[in-house]
Amino acid sequence: VCACYRVFVSITVCACYRVFVSITVCACYRVFVSITVCACYRVFVSITVCACYRVFVSITVCACYRVFVSITVCACYRVFVSITVCAC
After folding, report:
1. Residue 6: alpha-carbon gap to chain centroid
2. DSSP string, 14-44
3. Mean pLDDT in the chain?
4. Cβ-proximal residues to 15 (8 Å cutoff; 6+ apart), any chain
5. pTM of the complete model
6. Of 10, 67, 76, 78, which residue is the least packed, with the fewest Cβ within 10 Å?
7. Comparing C-alpha atoms, which of 25, 22, 19 is closest to residue 5?
8. DSSP states of 33-76 as a string?
9. 26 φ, ψ (degrees, to nearest 5)
10. What does the pLDDT read at residue 51?
11. pLDDT, tens digit, 9 for 90 and up, residues 48-85
12. Which superkingdom does the taxonomy of this entry point to (predicted)?
């Protein structure tokens, strides 16, 4: 079950409170996590797990309380969930 188990973590914090986290775990069990938090409280999370079990999660939370969640699981088991909550 994958001999490498490589983990790459990249974190950047800027003046606008922007945080970027990137994690990669091995080639056969690849996990990508990217998080961005900015002044408008925007949060973006994307996760990809393996080529045959693909999971994509995208979350955006902004000042207008808009929430977008999108999930895709595999090509043969495709699940798409989209949620939007916004005051404006």
Report:
1. 19
2. -TT--EEEEEEE-STT-EEEEEEE-TT--EE
3. 46
4. none
5. 0.22
6. 76
7. 25
8. EEEEE-TT--EEEEEEE-SSS-EEEEEEE-TT--EEEEEEE-SS
9. 60, 165
10. 46
11. 444 444 555 555 444 444 444 444 444 444 444 444 44
12. Eukaryota
